[in-house]
Design brief:
Elements (H helix, E strand, L loop, with lengths): L8 E4 L2 E5 L5 E5 H7 L15 E5 L7 E7 L5 E10 L4 E10 L7 E10 L4 E9 L5 E10 L4 E10 L3 E10 L4 E11 L2 E10 L5 E11 L3 E10 L4 E10 L5 E10 L5 E10 L2 H8 L5 H13 L2
Parallel strand pairs: 1-5, 4-6, 5-7, 6-8, 7-9, 8-10, 9-11, 10-12, 11-13, 12-14, 13-15, 14-16, 15-17, 16-18, 17-19
Antiparallel strand pairs: 1-2, 3-4
Helix pairs in contact: 2-3
Length: about 300
């Protein structure tokens, strides 16, 4: 990595390559945090073996970066990550998880908790880049305290052989959550599950899902919004199939438990319109270039 000195937490296989402390934050491995701060044990599910702990105590005006990669063959990672942002802080986090070579048969399992204290704000861009022999399982839980705000973008640019990704968003009163998930699925079995629970009065959230099925992929996505109080929520789930042997199953679910809540959804699955391809081909693009341009636009919408 060219700019390793600027990466706040960098791990390859099971070895920590670099920890760079940003002023106003504490960054440790999760096993160290377990030993040093007993309160973290309320968030970790058992004593962690690896992973990162980031505690932002004061305003950090530059983005924080984490990078976890697999470089060795048959490596099996099992991470527990914890991020805590204190009251009224506005933080930007960029996280990347990846395989650095082909045919490593890597296993990446990660679970984590992200805690936003009252009035805090987090913009979190999370990127995955895997190879077709890898197996990936992630399970994250977000806790948004009163009047906190989360903008979460999860992009799977290259899918592994098997992917299971689960996210749970808990919103207290006045909390706002905007979730965007995009996956370019190629030769993969992918399962994505997202649940947003609107617990507090005046909370609101959106889940925006964009999935592309290519080259015999099987994609299952289940998105759910639960409204426990007077709150607003919306699901926007869209799939795009590019070949006859791929499958996409979208399951949007609304669970309303308060008569004053307003939750809605829209879902669609389609294919690339021939008119779009023809338009781009007439302007000098090859069919592959035109297809990729349409897919990139779809994933970014």
């Amino acid at each position: 990595m060219k700019n390793a000195k600027n990466v706040n937490y960098w791990q390859i296989d099971h070895r920590i390559k670099n920890i760079y402390l940003a002023k106003g934050s504490i960054i440790l491995s999760s096993p160290e945090a377990w030993k040093k701060y007993k309160w973290t044990r309320n968030y970790f599910s058992g004593k962690p073996k690896e992973g990162y702990f980031i505690w932002v105590k004061e305003q950090v005006n530059t983005p924080l970066f984490t990078c976890v990669s697999i470089a060795g063959k048959n490596v099996s990672q099992k991470l527990q990550n914890l991020l805590v942002i204190e009251k009224s802080l506005k933080i930007h986090l960029q996280g990347t998880c990846s395989t650095l070579k082909k045919n490593l048969f890597g296993i990446h399992k990660a679970q984590g908790k992200i805690v936003l204290r009252e009035g805090s704000s987090l913009k979190y861009n999370h990127i995955h880049l895997w190879e077709e022999k890898d197996i990936v399982e992630t399970n994250y839980e977000f806790f948004l305290e009163k009047n906190s705000k989360l903008n979460y973008s999860y992009r799977i640019l290259f899918t592994p052989n098997k992917l299971k990704a689960s996210n749970l968003f808990n919103l207290s009163a006045g909390a706002v959550c905007n979730v965007k998930i995009g996956a370019n699925c190629v030769k993969t079995k992918t399962e994505i599950k997202d649940v947003m629970v609107l617990k507090g009065i005046g909370s609101s959230g959106i889940i925006n899902l964009r999935l592309v099925g290519k080259k015999e992929s099987k994609v299952l996505a289940h998105s759910r919004i639960v409204a426990d109080s007077k709150a607003k929520g919306h699901l926007d789930c869209q799939g795009l199939l590019t070949d006859k042997k791929s499958e996409i199953l979208l399951t949007p679910e609304l669970d309303c438990r308060n008569k004053l809540a307003q939750i809605t959804h829209e879902a669609s699955i389609g294919q690339i319109a021939q008119e779009q391809l023809t338009y781009l081909r007439m302007r000098g693009l090859s069919e592959k270039e035109a297809t990729n341009l349409i897919i990139n636009g779809f994933l970014g919408s």
